[in-house]
Design goal:
The chain is an alpha/beta fold and 452 residues long. The chain is 68% helix and 9% strand. Among the domains are: 218-323, Tetratricopeptide repeat domain (Serine Threonine Protein Phosphatase 5, Tetratricopeptide repeat, Alpha Horseshoe), CATH 1.25.40; 334-451, Trna Endonuclease, Chain: A, domain 1, CATH 3.40.1350.10. The longest helix is centred in the N-terminal third of the chain and has 56 residues, at 2-57.
């Protein structure tokens, strides 16, 4: 028992000694670092004081200007650094002791920090002409070419830079962004994934990666990223727009609606993205037969730009649809509802007639053919009705196909009903044939027969 107590006491003493030693060592390191910082600060202040003293007597003294410029550059005082390196550039022609390459490079880098990109570009082009393919020069030139939208040139310059430093994150990033602009998504994906492994919070790189996936037809991966970015204040609206567009194209209308609505909740939205979000939200409503909800959204689009896409036509069309439920079914409802409406129209097309529907066929939800035996007090006939689900123009080819079907079925005549118009060729084709055309002007009368 005594031995155990002695062992514990020894261990405690050793622990205390180690703790004290570590504390003293850390204190010593910090003290030396603090002394070093003070010395560096003192050296900086001395350099500045001496340089300013020299310049007060000789404002064009190259050595003093270089000292001043270096201190400003090291401190990140970019405006002062830019001004001082600018003064040195003006002295290069008459003073061989000044490195034109060095001052041009530093001037360009300071200009980049100040977002004076044209100044930066000019200066770095000069630096590159003096010493071609120096990494610091060409990596920044590549960035500037990207900003100038010279994407092919940026790609070539950045590839050179990356050959020198394959793991340089900023160069990988800019090249990855550039490659998405010149439609090289496979290469872009490889680089941007590396960048995001190192900088997972880089939203711009993530947005670009989603675009590259989308271009590679990897829609699921693209949508996952766009969905993740929807709440982001910068990339959220555009991400919501693209995610919604993908869902709209794949007939996932409820998801599309949610995407567009989330995109519109952002406070700051680019005007071009805002108007398209509204336009596509209206489309998603229409696809779900929510015409009344679509109309006020289309009105907002119209107020932003009356000439935007086909907004005038859509407003006119959906205002008519909102007043006519049968027209909504004719153009927009699922096939089952559409076919049910077509049956009702055929059954009531001729007053006081006996109708026997013998065949119904639907072609890819574009049109339906209904064949019926019809008997009235004066005549009886086999008639083929074609209902075309469009508010656009019906051409001659569609009527030729209908005529061919009438002959194959040995029908006596045909009726073609559409919510749009018929082309001159289509009208001319039916002149000598037993086919009656019912267009958007006459269709409402036919639709009313469904309620008879």
């Amino acid at each position: 028992m005594g031995l155990d107590f002695l062992s514990i006491a020894v261990l405690l003493i050793i622990g205390i000694i180690i703790l004290v030693a570590v504390t003293l060592m850390v204190y010593g390191v910090r003290k030396r670092a603090s002394r070093k910082d003070r010395n560096a600060r003192k050296d900086r202040d001395t350099r500045l004081r001496e340089a300013n003293k020299t310049l007060s007597q000789d404002p064009r003294n190259a050595e003093a200007l270089q000292t001043l410029a270096e201190v400003y550059f090291e401190d990140g005082a970019w405006e002062k650094a830019l001004k001082t390196y600018g003064a040195l550039i003006s002295l290069c022609a008459t003073n061989p002791d000044i490195s034109e390459f060095e001052v041009s490079l530093r001037y360009g880098l300071a200009a980049v920090q100040l977002k004076q990109y044209e100044e930066a570009y000019k200066s770095l082009v000069v630096a590159n002409s003096l010493k071609p393919d120096v990494f610091e020069v060409i990596s920044n030139l590549g960035l500037l070419e990207y900003r100038r939208k010279n994407y092919e040139k940026a790609s070539a310059v950045l590839r050179k830079a990356l050959d020198q430093r394959p793991e340089h994150t900023q160069t990988m990033r800019t090249l990855g962004l550039t490659l998405t602009k010149i439609h090289k998504p496979k290469d872009a994906v490889a680089l941007l994934r590396k960048v995001l492994d190192l900088e997972p919070d880089d939203k711009e790189a993530l947005f670009a990666l989603a675009g590259a996936y989308y271009e590679l037809n990897a829609g699921d991966q693209a949508v996952r990223i766009y969905t993740h970015l929807r709440p982001d204040p910068v990339f959220g609206p555009h991400s919501a727009l693209i995610a919604g567009t993908i869902h709209l194209k794949s007939n996932q209308f409820e998801k599309a609606e949610m995407d567009f609505e989330l995109g519109l909740r952002h406070e700051k939205i680019r005007p071009d993205v805002l108007i398209e979000l509204r336009y596509r939200l209206a489309s998603s409503y229409v696809k779900q037969q929510k015409v009344q909800q679509a109309l006020p959204i289309l009105q907002q689009v119209y107020e932003m730009n009356p000439e935007y896409k086909d907004v005038r036509t859509q407003m006119s069309r959906y205002q008519a649809l909102s007043r006519d439920r049968n027209l909504q079914i004719f153009l927009m409802a699922p096939s089952s509802e559409f076919v049910g409406l077509c049956r009702k129209i055929v059954l009531n097309f001729f007053p006081q007639s006996k109708v026997k529907i013998t065949d119904i066929s639907v072609q890819q939800n574009e049109y339906a053919d209904v064949l019926a035996e019809i008997e009235t007090a004066k005549w009886e006939d086999l008639i083929l009705f074609r209902f075309i689900r469009t508010s656009g123009q019906v051409g001659e080819l569609m009527l030729r196909d209908l005529h061919s079907r009438i002959k194959d079925l040995k029908a006596g005549r045909g009726f073609c009903l559409a919510a749009g118009e018929y082309s001159p060729g289509a009208k001319q084709f039916v002149e000598a044939r037993l086919i009656d055309l019912i267009d958007k002007e006459e269709l409402p009368k036919a639709l009313k027969k469904a309620d008879s």
